[in-house]
Amino acid sequence: MKVRTVSIRVERLSKKWKNFSIPDVSLRVANDEYFVIVGPTGAGKTLLLELIAGFHKPDSGKIWINDVDVTAFPPERRGIGFVPQEYMLFPHMTVAENVEFGLKMHNIQQSERKKNVKEVLEFMELSSIRDRLPMTLSGGEEQKTALARALIIKPKILLLDEPLSALDVNTQKKMQNELKKLHEELKITTVHVTHNQVEALILADRLAVIKDGTIIQTGSPEQVFHKPKDDFVARFVGFENLFEGKILENHGGVARIDIGGVTVEAVTEKVENCVVGVRPDDIIVSKRSFRSSIRNTLKGKLIDFVDMGSLVSLTVNVDTASFVALITKRSFLEMKLKKGSGVYLSFKASAVHVI
Amino acid sequence: MKEGWLRERSPFIIASAIFGFLMLVFILLPIINTVALSVDKLGSALMSFEARDAIFMSFYAAFLATLFTFIFGVPLAYTLARYDFPGKSIIDASIDLPILIPHDAAGIALLLLFGPRTMIGTGFSSIGINFVDTLFGIVLAMAFVSSPFMIRSAEDAFKAINPDVEKVARSLGASNFKAFLHVTFPLAFRGILTGCLLTWARSISEFGAVIILASVPRTAPVYLYDVFGNQGLGAAVAITALLIITAVVIFVIIKLVTAKPLKPVY
């Protein structure tokens, strides 16, 4: 394990704000680390991020950034790069003007500004759209502009609030890779807030699972996903369908993977051993096999089910692999499922997450 | 919609059409009639120094009243749009009071506070500012009755801006004030401009509060009242038409400013 210095230290932070409450949070983010805070909607993720950014004064507790106590600092003096939800580009400024804004606020000379903006736009591959207004940009372009705008002031830490949730699924995958690449190249300490477990799994060096303003578990993705501390974490991270996988073959990005006697197909570039995850709500359950474009159809046996109100959680064994699937109460009743029933599980190759 | 409206000749639709038409006639006919009656006299009315001075006084005082409500009203609007604090709903409700109070009553209320023998009035008097029968009095009366237009327009404009854009500006090194100046204000500009035009227009048309505080120097509505009282209906026609035409021009400008599609605000 590499020895890392601590970049962000949050100690016994508490805050009540509107409907949100953070009773007592402590956390450490190491230098260069990509740290993901993951939790359901309303868990206080954004509030925690905005406390670190300095948009709220904590009721109690302290925050250090690079060993400086910034608790009393206004946001503009904390050396942060901030990308809020929906990016919030300045709608009255072009891409280049958006990116230049931070330099202007730091009273950098114009010639210096122009040079810096040009460099950052090139680095983020935004040069061709430099004179466009935000309203004409695609989601991915907006996100890159927001990142460029945050990065140009060379922040000590980068704070990202749900940076991928405003994008369509395809762009999401692409921008996920962009974020990863960016972090590898710039080595900037990053705190990324999301409600999406898969995002956390793929991007995080370490992650914290948060619920009702309290951090339930912190650790590497492997630690959290393999050894969830409690039911909540287990359910929330979609732990149910996680398998050790062996890639049998990979043809142009579509791999056949063995997960304990069962073969599934997944969209991935990977060729070696991996961890395979399928979210319970991505699985379609039916009593008969039906022909469709869905790549993975597995025959299994219903072992158990748990009534969760409007949803029913099914445990289905396929050979030695045990899957959990979520279906609506209504389809559960319509299919007249009983323990021991034979069922088919279908899920798209793109719903198989290879880590 | 339109086809259905024409095809379905139910008594209700027909009655609505007739009543609606009469309402329209009621609004437009006096205006058109006045302008038509005055066509040959408009030129001479414009040539009259008194009329021109009065109209200029109205425009000028209204401009100052707009400036005053801009300087003090925009910060209030911003505070109301951005922050929650105890008693906010009371402050919020009280902003609209000047619209509800009869305007001569508003004038008297101002006189009771800023008049010559009052504490505040004496204070201002000592630095050379008097409010009775002066430009200051006119501006005071205009600003009081038209301030809700400025505050509400600006407040709506600020509310339409996501506070997150200000947060980004702060994170990029902007102080509170700089974030407001470079991001919030430009984004709210059209709404604030609309507020300015409405305030200005409402100030020009103000009579009741103004005449209580200042019957001289004469603004256009006060001048019109004088002409009507001293020289009768005939003499008042041209200046009336002039005021109506002015109002129409201002109205068109407001429509032009507000009609342009707004940039999507986050």
Protein described:
The complex is a heterodimer of chains A (355) and B (266). Chain A has helices at 45-53, 95-105, 110-123, 139-151, 169-186, 197-203, 221-226, 231-236, 329-334; strands at residues 6-17, 20-30, 34-38, 60-65, 68-69, 80-83, 157-161, 189-194, 206-211, 214-219, 242-251, 254-258, 263-267, 274-278, 284-286, 296-307, 311-318, 321-328, 342-347, 352-354. In chain A, strand 9 (206-211) and strand 10 (214-219) form a beta hairpin. Chain A is globular. With 355 residues, chain A is an alpha+beta fold. In chain A, helix 2 packs across helix 3. Chain A folds into two domains: 6-237, P-loop containing nucleotide triphosphate hydrolases (Rossmann fold), CATH 3.40.50.300; 241-354, OB fold (Dihydrolipoamide Acetyltransferase, E2P) (Beta Barrel), CATH 2.40.50. In chain A, the strands form four sheets. Chain A has a six-stranded mixed beta sheet, sandwiched between helices. A five-stranded antiparallel beta sheet of chain A has the order 13-12-11-14-20, with no helix packed on it. With 266 residues, chain B is mainly alpha-helical. Chain B has one domain (42-259): MetI-like (MetI-like fold, Orthogonal Bundle), CATH 1.10.3720.10. Chain B has 14 helices and no strands. The model of chain B has no long low-confidence stretch (mean pLDDT 90). Chain A binds chain B through residues 50, 53-55, 74-76, 78, 80-86, 88-92, 101-102, 104-106, 135, 146, 149-150, 153, 155, 159, and chain B through 162, 164-165, 167-176, 178, 182-183, 186-187, 263-266.
